[in-house]
Amino acid sequence: MIKPLNVFVSRGLSHHPDKRQVEQSVTDLLALDPRVKVTMIPNLYDLRPDGDAYSQLKELDEDFIVISWMFQRAAHWILDRNGVLGQTGEVEFGAEEDDDADELEDDILEEEEKQRVIETLDIPDRSIYCLQFQHPSEPQHYVDEVVRIAESSLMQWISGTPDQDKLDRFLNAEQRHEPELSAIEEKAGRRWYPVIDFSRCTNCMECIDFCLFGVYGVDNQETILVEQPDNCRKGCPACSRVCPENAIVFPQHKSPAIAGAPAETGGLKIDLSLLFGAPDAQEVAARERDEQLMLAGRAPVEESGNANGSPAISMEPRQVQNVGADKDDLDHLIDGLDSLDL
Ligand code: SF4
Ligand code: SF4
After folding, report:
1. Kind and range of the H or E element at 90?
2. Which of 22, 65, 146, 246 has a CA 20 to 30 Å removed from the CA of 8?
3. pLDDT tens readout for residues 234-280
4. What ligand has the least distance to the C-alpha of 289?
5. What is the DSSP letter of 198?
């Protein structure tokens, strides 16, 4: 019998008993299925890259599944920034709700041919599938989707050319696999940092210019990265509003658009061009950044010219001429998003 597909269940931060029940029901059902091996881990976003959970994740070179309370792209790029790389696995769970959103996102992304950072990355040819917990939900639906992925993953592997290592594991696999469930207990304090979605990022550097807390940096290829994640100010989402591509995600933010939602959530269609990188979004972001500077005991940009005492930092975004927005619409959208609680 073939080696089972790994499924990692990332526990959420909420103590809501109904949410805990969703996690437990899905985990218990999955553990009964011999096609998968289930491991419970603390909240993926809070984990340290050198901890036990990431060590185990980094050892895998095959497809796997993560189920978390975060949106798919948020979970995928959290894994990526922590050194767990793979192609985005296609998930059908809940896909019917997102058809219009996909079209809207495609329109926005196709309005201009831009090079995305993902095109320059060396990503291994295995798939990582990120499913999102929802409450309320039917646990069997998760199991059905996991089984669908397990079968499709196996079919792709068989029709490809497995390397010797994979072939050995396949041939030497136990004849009968018993259901498996394990847990990684790891201390994980709550964290807050931006996650870059490199499938959208164009490496424009707006974010590194904007943030005055030294969170962003560049690698030796001059590609943007989140260099000092823990320098980020708890609760501050300012740079996500400045990014013209909606590439910066704060997975725990209460507004779905900032937390990495597709372009339509809860019946509210979100025009990303109004929310991210637009002139009014810049003003909101500047206010939020000034608040954080003052909380940190530093002077706001508008009073001092610059928090570091050097020449004023212009709030004119590099790409402001490419976008436009009506202030009332933006205010309305942000109010609507803020009233949603995931
Ligand atoms: S502002 Fe957005 S698109 Fe530009 S480099 Fe930063 S994350 Fe990438
Ligand atoms: S959220 Fe605020 S502190 Fe954090 S990286 Fe963005 S601008 Fe900097």
Report:
1. none
2. 246
3. 999 999 999 999 999 999 999 999 999 986 444 444 556 556 666 68
4. 2
5. T
Interatomic CA distance for residues 72 and 66, integer angstroms: 9
CATH architecture of 5-86+123-183: 3-Layer(aba) Sandwich (3.40)
For residue 8, report the distance from its CA to the centre of ligand 2, in Å.
Answer: 29
Residue 341: the pLDDT is: 44
Residue of 91, 97, 188, 77 whose CA lies nearest to 145: 91
Q: Kindly report the pTM of this predicted structure.
A: 0.80
Point out the ligand nearest to the CA of residue 277: 1
How many residues are there in the chain? 342
C-alpha–C-alpha distance, residues 203 and 222, integer Å: 9
Residue extents of the structural domains in the chain = 5-86+123-183, 195-338
Contact criterion met (CB below 8 Å) for 59 and 100: no
- Which residue's alpha carbon is at the smallest distance from atom 8 of ligand 1? 201
Strand partners, 216: 226
